[in-house]
Amino acid sequence: MPSISPENNHIILNAFTMATVSHLNYGLWRHPDDQTYRYTEIEYWVELARSLDEAGFDCLFIADALGLIDVYGHSPDASLRHGIQSPLIDPLLLVSAMAAATRTLGFGITLSTTYEHPYLAARKFTTLDHLTRGRIGWNVVTSQQESAARNLLGLEQQVPHGERYARAEEFMDVVYKLWQGSWEDDAVIRQSGPGVDSIYTRPEKVHAIGHEGRYYHVPDGHVAQPSRQRVPLVLQAGTSPRGSEFAARHAEVVFVVGAGAQGVRDNVRRIRDLAAGYGRDPANIKFVTAVAVVTDTTEQAARARLAEYMRYYDPVGSIIHYSSMTGVDFSRTLHDEVLRYQPTQASQSVLRQFDPAVSGREWTLAEAANPQNGFGRARTFVGAPTQVTDEIEQWLEDSETDGINLIQLVNPASYRDFGELIIPELRSRGRVRPRSGLSLREKIFPHNGSARPGRDHPAARYAF
User: Fold this and answer.
1) Considering only CA atoms, which of 135, 88, 144, 85 is closest in space to residue 112?
2) Taking residues 186-200, what's their average pLDDT?
3) In Å, what is the CA distance from 451 to each residue of 131, 445, 455?
4) Is residue 245 a part of any domain in this protein?
5) pLDDT tens digit string along 279-325?
6) Rounded CA gap, 267 and 34, in Å?
């Protein structure tokens, strides 16, 4: 693990959620204190964002999916009945209200390169970067659900995994050109007055990008003037061979998975090595994992709370979601059956991590999807504040990661407890960033001294 200096001592603290009734907290929508059923109310999102901002979280990371969850049993019935990421609304439309209610909280929003056009995506993220004053990040995904391919592209089957990444590579080239190479910094001058020509934008400073590629034809310039970051902080989740290559080239923050700390660490090291091969500084890529926390003032009280939460936990819901992630129908798989990798057009890394050839041991479906005293596949920490903080720091060291995506279990209690009990302990150890007016990129990479991508990032080649 890289040595900890005052500059990189801070932990990335993301709150991890989805614009749905139940994200990774399978079944806990049934808990009487859970408020996530209010996800269609703008007040719910404003309250959540404001509380995270005040607590000291760096970013609200909002996952997304396109299409119904219908792999398990070859039907959406199970996901609808169990409330597994269904129903679901568009997270992009939530950001403006949350940004207006917060000062420093960043927003990492998921958008698919398979089902969006780069010209439209560039305008959406430029708009949000303006409205958040540089606090927007983009979780780049290629989408895994076949239901999305049917309904958005009219296809009978999902676009092949490799082709989705090929499209994504060209997609990134287009948006980089639009964000970086279309408008010069001094294009907008707003000149007016007696005796002078009125000029809002100097047309010679706005350039067509002339992109002609295999998948996209974008001849003209960006429609929006540059925002503070120009390019949103690039987030990415994917550790398949193709996903790792994509992360090594483009990602600034990677949401990484693996079977235990060693599996995560292996993926981190592999992506860092790949990044160096592309001429990038490995220090300019940060890594986070999903974790769940159950805490209280004492360990005994935390254990009691865990037992209470487990009464509502839905192990079938976890398997329904795991089927969707992997593209494998586990509805007829015995819970003690050993998992083995099988190629699909869905997320390859989520299943591959539990293959004996990768993890070094055999995992049953139950062990992978529903570990004992845990919530789904995420690492779960339970205990008093000092105990949980110790375990988080040990996890970061063992996995060689830089931060966490904190899963909500019961909302708002989970984030409130973490903010009131764990963050003060982390802050006392110098692990929480001080509040500032920095952009999201400047917060995560203060040593680069800029709101814009570093010189080693592929977006930099298009900058003036």
Assistant:
1) 144
2) 88
3) 15, 9, 12
4) yes
5) 999 999 999 999 999 999 999 999 999 999 999 999 888 888 888 77
6) 34
How many CB atoms lie under 10 A from the CB of residue 210? Answer: 12
Contact 443, 436 (CB under 8 A): yes
In 339-403, alpha helices (H)? 348-352, 356-359, 365-369, 385-399
Q: What is the domain-level CATH number for residue 437?
A: 3.20.20.30
Contact 67, 148 (CB under 8 A): yes
Q: How many Å apart are CA 109 and CA 201, to the nearest integer?
A: 30
pTM of the model: 0.91
Instruction: Say if 365 falls within a structural domain.
Output: yes
Q: What is d(CA 385, CA 393) in angstroms, rounded to the nearest whole number?
A: 12
Q: How far apart are CA 161 and CA 159, in angstroms?
A: 6
Are residues 278 and 249 in contact, defined by beta-carbon separation less than 8 angstroms?
A: yes
Question: How many Å apart are CA 50 and CA 258, to the nearest integer?
Answer: 32
Measure the CA–CA gap between 246 and 458, rounded to whole angstroms.
Answer: 11
pLDDT tens digits for 39-74?
A: 999 999 999 999 999 999 999 999 998 888 888 888
3-state secondary structure (DSSP) of residue 119: helix
Q: What is the DSSP string of 247-265?
A: HHHH-SEEE---SHHHHHH
Q: Which helix (H) or strand (E) holds 233?
A: strand 233-237
Q: How many structural domains compose the chain?
A: 1
Structure token pair of residue 293 = 């926390």
What gap in Å lies between CA 307 and CA 444, rounded to an integer?
Answer: 36
- pLDDT, average across residues 245-274: 92
Measure the CA–CA gap between 128 and 147, rounded to whole angstroms: 28
Question: 393-417 burial string, b = 16+ CB within 10 Å, else e?
Answer: eebbeebbbbbbbbbbbbbbbbbeb
191 falls within a domain: no
- Rounded to 10°, the helix 161-181/241-250 angle is 10
- Tokens (6 digits) for 378: 């995420």
Rounded Cα distance between 61 and 84, Å, is 18
**Contact by Cβ (8 Å): 458, 175:** no
| Domain-embedded: residue 179 | yes
Residues 445/454, Cβ–Cβ less than 8 Å: yes
Q: Find the domain containing 160 and state its range.
A: 12-185+201-462
Torsion (CA) 374, 349, 340, 26 in degrees, nearest 10: 30
